[in-house]
């Protein structure tokens, strides 16, 4: 995929889907701390998107993708165990009180999708160092 903006847009769509599914799961289990798992896992997904869609030097893309993959997979696995074995993080419990009746909608936009957007911004070094440079 030649166009850098197409890759970023595709990565954002992938992250949007991941965070939407996690938001729904968090709503169902009444534990929105699952967003922390999504934050780490989304960076892995973005690195994979850039690896498969980018047309840069394959070895450089692979090095970046594997570093991000192992870091993100390790972190998201650790966070998943922590989130599912403990109650909701105090930060998110406080947000529940602050958000009132709009809690689910605000968590979707202000927490889940915002962190997904931050993942896209944080992924810029992967994009610049691997897929677009030949």
Please outline the helices and strands.
Elements: H1 4-29, H2 35-53, H3 58-85, H4 90-99, H5 103-122, H6 124-129
Helix pairs in contact: 1-2, 1-5, 2-3, 2-5
List the keywords.
elongated, mainly alpha, 0% strand, 134 residues
Descriptive report:
The chain has 134 residues and is an all-alpha fold. It has one domain. 81% of the residues lie in helices and 0% in strands. It is built from six helices and no strands. The protein has helices at 4-29, 35-53, 58-85, 90-99, 103-122, 124-129. Helix 1 (4-29) packs antiparallel against helix 2, helix 1 (4-29) runs antiparallel to helix 5 and helix 2 (35-53) runs parallel beside helix 5 (103-122). The protein is elongated and about 50 Å long. The protein starts with a helix and ends in a 5-residue tail after the last helix.
Quick structural overview:
With 134 residues, this protein is an all-alpha fold.
Oligomerization category of the chains in this entry: single chain
Residue stretches low in confidence (pLDDT < 50, at least 5 long) are none
Number of helices: 6
Radius of gyration from the alpha-carbon trace, in angstroms = 16 Å
Helix content: over 70%
Give the integer mean of the pLDDT values: 88
Sheet with most strands: none
| Topology as a string of helices (H) and strands (E) | HHHHHH
Number of strands: 0
Shape: elongated
Measured between the Cα atoms of the first and last residue, the distance is 13 Å
Indicate the structural class: mainly alpha
Number of domains: 1
């Amino acid at each position: 995929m030649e166009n850098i903006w197409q890759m970023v847009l595709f990565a954002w769509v992938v992250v949007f889907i991941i965070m939407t599914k996690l938001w729904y799961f968090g709503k169902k289990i009444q534990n929105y701390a699952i967003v922390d798992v999504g934050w780490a896992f989304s960076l892995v997904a973005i690195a994979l998107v850039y690896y498969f869609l980018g047309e840069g030097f394959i070895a450089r893309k692979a090095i970046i993708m594997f570093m991000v993959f192992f870091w993100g997979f390790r972190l998201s696995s650790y966070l998943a165990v922590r989130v599912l074995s403990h109650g909701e993080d105090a930060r998110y419990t406080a947000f529940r009180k602050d958000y009132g009746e709009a809690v689910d909608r605000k968590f979707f936009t202000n927490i889940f999708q915002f962190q997904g957007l931050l993942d896209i911004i944080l992924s810029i070094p992967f994009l610049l160092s691997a897929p677009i440079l030949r």
